[in-house]
Amino acid sequence: MNIIQSYLTNNPCYKAGRKITVKGLMLHSVGCPQPKASVFVKNWNRADYDRACVHGFIDANTGDIHQTLPWNHRGWHGGGSSNNTHIGVEMCEPATIKYTGGASFTCSDRAAAQAAAKRTYEAAVELFAHLCQQYNLDPLKDGVIVSHREGHARGIASNHGDPEHLWKGLGMSYTMDTFRAAVKAKMGGAAPVQPPAQGTNTPTPPTSKGEVKAKDAAKSFDKALAGTYAVTAGAGLHIRTGAGSSKASLAVLPKGTKVRNYGYYTMAGGVKWLYIQVTYQGVQYTGFSSSEYLKKQ
Q1: Rounded to an integer, what is the distance from CA 7 to the centroid of its chain?
Q2: Which of 44, 59, 218, 232 is an S-S bond match for 275, by CB 3.0 to 4.6 Å?
């Protein structure tokens, strides 16, 4: 799973900064023949785009996931009360389809379209498994994982038919029941996935057994931040050589690991990256970790 931090920092929804207690996950598809997630990121990252804002787009060409909001931000994706409880993720759709009205479409290359839909389906399974682990959600529990169509039927979302209309129109066997089962299976047997906002690069082995320190220095100080924190990410938390998911990883700290911050931090992508210190496996690490996956004790 490759997650690219692409926050829509200019979108009014992002700027509103409202938080939610995550109780579920809603799966969408974009409803137009555009496979590139980057196109939506560009078009939605505007101050005048006040119609919608989701937490992520899955690219149909690559399977890459562009995270566009922090997971615990309130999105504008469901068109109802689901915005207050659910993370919303859009799957991009194949370039070879053409909508003819409503949820109906034709397809010029069914094999290519099915391959694209399979790519987004599998990426969504992996992402939702990770999010269920992170937020302690049971994917098979009623109302936890729903489609936009199911959300409408439950009275918590606007009237849409996605993403089932895409799978059905392409003659694929996918349903939301198979999706939920696949998420549950992925949680039970898959190798751990890396936390999204942190990136997915492999940690750099320490050059010595004594101390490993970030190359970058913290840029800001807030005394109120100082204290002990615990890692909350189920798959572990990267400690990096600088602030931001593009910076090299020094190590991945397991969930529950206690770290220390002395008030120093750097802002990157609208998120505080705390300058932390921790001893892990006999090595003292000093570096940056996303505050989204740290809970003050």
Answers
A1: 10
A2: 218
Task: Look at the domain 198-296 and name its fold.
Answer: SH3 type barrels. (2.30.30)
Radius of gyration (Cα) for the chain, nearest Å? Answer: 20
Q: Structural domain boundaries of the chain?
A: 3-189, 198-296
pLDDT in tens, 152-175: 999 999 999 999 999 999 999 999
Using an 8 Å Cβ cutoff, are 234 and 133 in contact? yes
Q: Is 0.70 surpassed by the pTM of this model?
A: no
Asked if residue 241 lies in contact with residue 250, where contact means CB atoms within 8 angstroms, the answer is yes
CATH of domain 3-189: 3.40.80.10
> Using omega within 30 degrees of 0 as the cis cutoff, is the peptide bond preceding 163 cis?
yes
Rounded Cα distance, 245 and 289, in Å: 9
Cα–Cα dist 13/35, whole Å? 24
The two structure tokens encoding residue 229: 């924190």
- CA dihedral sign of residues 8, 135, 249, 3: negative
Chain segment 120-148, per-residue pLDDT in tens: 999 999 999 999 988 989 999 999 999 99
Q: Is the pLDDT of residue 235 over 90?
A: no
Q: Is 158 helix (H, G, I), strand (E, B) or coil?
A: coil
Pairing relationship of beta strands 227-231 and 294-296 according to DSSP bridges: antiparallel
